[in-house]
TrEMBL record:
This is NADH-quinone oxidoreductase subunit H. The chain crosses the membrane at residues 20-45, 93-114, 126-148, 169-188, 208-227, 256-280, 286-311, 331-349. NDH-1 is composed of 14 different subunits. Subunits NuoA, H, J, K, L, M, N constitute the membrane sector of the complex. It catalyses: a quinone + NADH + 5 H(+)(in) = a quinol + NAD(+) + 4 H(+)(out). One of its GO terms (biological process) is aerobic respiration. The gene is nuoH. It comes from Hydromonas duriensis.
Length: 357
């Protein structure tokens, strides 16, 4: 595979000269963006079907066979809707807000691998890059709420930003613990560190993944990911009975769709990062299943995490805002600090260290 790619890049470099790096980047980026957009569109369909099944409903079944064209109809509807801009809005910032939320959601995919050597850019500090880029999204939320010149939008933006910052701290601590045990910021090294150990030698690879020794961090990261994406039951940012659509209330048509798109892309981002850091990435759960290509395992693990997002939406009632903040600051952050200390001591006891390289 790599030999084919290398020969193709050599041919492109010889044919297009100095313009080849740009062409080669577009060849890798554009197909990935198209796949992400289609995946988001049909995630909305799957979500409505899954929740409908859990609640004894049919879900979308009118547009196309078995309702499969419903996402296309939704996209067309959003494209055809009139875009209304509030008269007193700060228009430059008003239009910048959705872009600042959407662009980071796309940008992180540049360093997320789906298999061995299957990544757009293999960056040594990939994990740091993801943390840095993903944190920019909160600025878009604040800008959208403030520039709309609406008290409801501004109140929703303050809620959203406080919630996102609070749970980013817990997620950051969880990532630090993964960094400690893998000793690398590179995703390939993080996955490789989960492919060694006593259980991996016995063929039970899933027991050597980080989810087991770092179980508290796994739970904290997964639940914080739900809160970070403002998904139910942490979606008080869009509490219908209080502030309607939160920071998005003054957006219509494609402006609203960009926020909607970013939320669902971030669900995929959280599922991919969870799979890479805690679920072994593209590693098969058992050695005898290693004949199945790694990208398939990666996608299956992402699908399992996505199903968790949908499952809890259909199961739990919405939390109050004070309960959400209490969970983040008084439960998750103390648990992360304690486990950070535990893992630090664990790593320095040779007889107990299971991450010895």
């Amino acid at each position: 595979m790599m030999e084919m790619i290398n020969s193709f890049t050599q041919w492109g470099d010889a044919t297009f000269g100095g313009g080849w790096p740009v062409i080669w980047a577009l060849i890798r980026i554009v197909p990935l963006m198209v796949v992400i957009l289609l995946a988001v569109a049909y995630l909305t369909f799957v979500e409505r079907k899954v929740i409908g099944f859990m609640q004894g409903r049919l879900g979308p079944n009118r547009v196309g066979p078995a309702g499969l064209l419903q996402p296309i109809a939704d996209v067309v509807k959003l494209l055809m809707k009139e875009i209304i801009t509030p008269t007193r809005a700060d228009k430059p910032l008003y239009y910048l807000g959705p872009m600042m939320v959407l662009v980071p959601a796309f940008a992180v995919w540049a360093v997320i691998p789906f298999g061995q050597d299957l990544v757009i850019a293999n960056v040594n500090a990939a994990l740091l890059y993801v943390m840095s880029i993903a944190s920019i999204g909160v600025y878009g939320v604040i800008l959208a709420g403030w520039a709309s010149n609406s008290k409801y939008a501004f109140f929703g933006a303050m809620r959203a930003s406080a919630q996102m910052v609070s749970y980013e701290i817990a997620m950051g601590f969880a990532i630090i613990v993964v960094l400690m045990v893998s000793n690398s910021l590179n995703f390939f090294d993080i996955v490789k560190s989960q492919q060694t150990g006593r259980f991996a030698d016995m063929g039970m690879n899933f027991l050597s993944w980080n989810w087991l020794p770092l179980l508290p961090m796994f739970v904290v990261y997964l639940i914080s990911g739900v809160a970070e994406t403002n998904r139910h039951p942490f979606d008080v940012v869009e509490g219908e009975s209080e502030i309607v659509a939160g920071h998005m209330i003054e957006y219509s048509g494609m402006g609203f769709a960009l926020f909607f798109l970013a939320e669902y892309i971030n669900m995929y981002v959280i599922s991919a990062l969870t799979s890479l850091m805690f679920l072994g990435g593209w590693d098969a759960p058992f050695a005898f299943l290693s004949f199945i290509p790694g990208p398939i395992w990666m996608l299956l693990k992402m699908a399992a995490v996505i199903f968790f997002f949908l499952w809890i939406r259909a199961t739990f009632p919405r939390y109050r805002y004070d309960q959400i903040m209490r969970l983040g600051w008084k439960v998750f952050i103390p648990v992360c600090l304690v486990w950070l200390l535990v893992v630090g001591v664990w790593l320095h006891i040779p007889a107990l260290n299971i991450w010895v390289k």
